[in-house]
Amino acid sequence: MPASPVSPARTAYDAIAADYERAVAPSTWVRERLWERLDALFPPGSRVLDVTAGTGLDVLHLVGRGVEVTACDLSPGMLALLTLKAPSVPTVVADLNCLDETGLTGPFDGLVSTFAGLNAAADLTGLAAGAGRLVRPGGVLFLHVLNRWRKGRTLGVRIAGVEVPHRLWTPRELARVFVRDFMVSGWSGQGIFRSVDDSGDRGMRWERIASSLPGLRSLGTFFALELRRRG
Fold first, then answer.
1. Which single residue of 30, 99, 205, 217 has CA 20 to 30 Å from 143?
2. pTM (predicted TM-score)
3. Has residue 2 been placed in a domain?
């Protein structure tokens, strides 16, 4: 279902689709840490909805492990590249706040979003409502976003020359958006002692230790919040 009206975020991500994977390659260590947790949460046979699937880096990892994934994104350009790599993966072009308009049906074992896809939305109440309908009781939200602990509430980001305002969250603020249907089961930080764009291995030992420690895990460039569906 085409996203309507066309948003600045859609325009920007369509423009960078072809170069996206090269651009995020230095942050591969962050994605690999997220995969460790996704692998623990979603065993083979799980059914997962990725609401900011992009070109499919996370989707392909999960599918390779036997997880059934539906890929959703507001950028048709991004999803077209995913389809070239994995034609059998179902894709839906839609804004993450409009899941109830997509015709998607649950139950899903989990809903995921990584690498700040959620930050490009000023409000997430539509996503919260959609997740409450689509995720089964006991299912998981795995939300990976930019942290706001050293910044203001919003951040101006230019992508392909397009201004895409980013809403920044703390773990507690983000959790409150989903509190009607979900409860926090944990979170971890990324980019605490190691730059998220560091393609080397410096600081990895301390990064692993700090990522789950209270008092430190909230200090990273990113955090990954896990919530369980009530009931």
1. 205
2. 0.94
3. no
